[in-house]
Amino acid sequence: QVTLRESGPALVKPTQTLTLTCTLSGISLSASGMCVSWIRQSPGKAPEWLARIDWVEDKYYNTSLKTRLTVSRDTSRNQVVLTMTNMDPVDTGRYYCVRDEYSFESGEWWFDPWGQGTLVTVPS
Amino acid sequence: QTVVTQEPSLTVSPGGTVTLTCGFSAGAVTSNYYPGWFQQKPGQAPRALIYSTSNKHSWTPARFSASLLGGKSALTLSGVQPEDEAEYYCLLYYAGTRVFGGGTKLTVL
Prior knowledge:
The complex is a heterodimer. By secondary structure, chain A is mainly beta. Chain A is built from no helices and ten strands. The radius of gyration of chain A is 14 Å and the shape is elongated. The relative contact order of chain A is 0.31. The mean pLDDT of chain A is about 95. Chain B is about 0% helix and about 55% strand. The interface of A and B includes residues 47, 96 and 109 of A.
């Protein structure tokens, strides 16, 4: 069974850096086609894709947030880490990690499962 | 900036059929954008329904189907059930990144 679990601080002060960890089980970060994406969802709004790291450690970022985001991985721990600098109250929301996998066999991408998400609050 | 557009809201009667669409500012949606569809109910994480244009997950009810229609990705619900009332989001793959649509609030009334 594939599961992802996010962890990190529930409260981050303005201007601080947020660090979130996604721990994967049932899948290997090194497997061909395996990627992990980070998504956030502010209350009452649509999900927003933030970043992705793939099996060869290529990284992709939301262009609007690129200067603030860094995604990395630790294959020995099967973890993916997202950092976001200069946090602001508008960054309040639930942050999810998701398996974002490409099948070279079928030529298909799937975006599942999602972690349960971790709620991050930046007070004003 | 690339934008994915969805109908903000739709209403359908129980047992009816409704089609939600997903357009893209960069042009027609094609299979190369690997469109996916997600359902989200209050207090829950989004749940994947469709991947890579029209493929269903094992848990996706048969009444859900997806295709490309008129330059957009389309999600059709046939024989709508009350439990289908939810927010629906599409997701496109674009230049290595992902872009979510703004969502469609589907009301079953």
